[in-house]
Amino acid sequence: MDSLAQLLHLTPATLWMIVKVLLVFGGPFTIASLLTWVERRGSAMIQDRIGPNRAALFGKWRLLGLPQIVADGIKAFLKEDLVPPHAVGILFWLAPLFAFVPAVLGFAVIPFGQSFTIGNTQYHMSLLDPGNGMGMLYPMAIGAVAIYGVLTAAWSSNNKWSILGGMRVSAQMISYELAMSLAVVAIFMRTGNAGPPTFLEAYDPHRIVAAQAGLWNVIPQFLGFVVFSTCMFAETNRLPFDFAEGESEIVAGYLTEFGSMKFALMYLSEYVHIVTAAALIVTLYLGGWQIPFVADPGALLSVAAFLAKLLIVCWVFIWVRWTLPRFRYDQLMALGWKVMLPLALGNLMLHAWWMHRAAM
What is the reported pTM? Predict the structure, then answer.
């Protein structure tokens, strides 16, 4: 690291920050692009059909349909970008950015590997180093901001179907964020009870991962895991909760008036949200980069373990989409308020009681 930094006329800390920025922003973007292929190939497997197989490199190599990703990108760039005359000017152009940027920023505090030391310098595998004062509160807040992208797209389209989709997703995200936040509070309580001297450290993601060295949170907090994972499906607008773009009811919802690269950016932001949501599930409940029965996996092996867990959770998102039908909207709201919220409260109270009993 020091030799490479000297070669580039940078300090080791600056070079490592540049590497982390490239990994944190380029990694989810790359995985999201691959997920668009996995989505179609996976749905084809589940529905017993072929899937994308026509696009080929130089007309010869089909590579299981992987060139379809390149074909989609070329099509999005070359497709005519129509803007409806009734659209609300600048907001219509900014909406894709409002949807895409928060999805990428949410990955900034996720520890994607074990910290390592070179010389006298310690390097952390997260864009923001531990002890930054925000911890897991940061991705929760950024995730809440993502709603503005959908609402801006819906309102600026000036289309009744788009506005209906925006209203649906705003009510949906608000409803499920309550249960999701309560499930995460139980994680903070367990982590704080494991040894950190202050509650500030209890919601640091590095500390949360370290607290799962012996036992992943998915086992003692299985109920919270179910609540949080369900809420993640609602937060990412995935089936069976894709009411913001229900084709059979509201054409394509907030996406109705978008085309070309604006549509591609909105479409890709959903998959970046999936990657971020999967990273949160892995960090909070599946031990992060921890490997069972391996106390010190090292930097490379820990990154590989985190990536493997991340991809498995991403596949579950796709698997569920092509397995469960869409709920009715009243069922969605009833599930959020009458099932998920009471379960999250019960999980929180159960762990509070257990911690109180253990302290006696």
Answer: 0.90
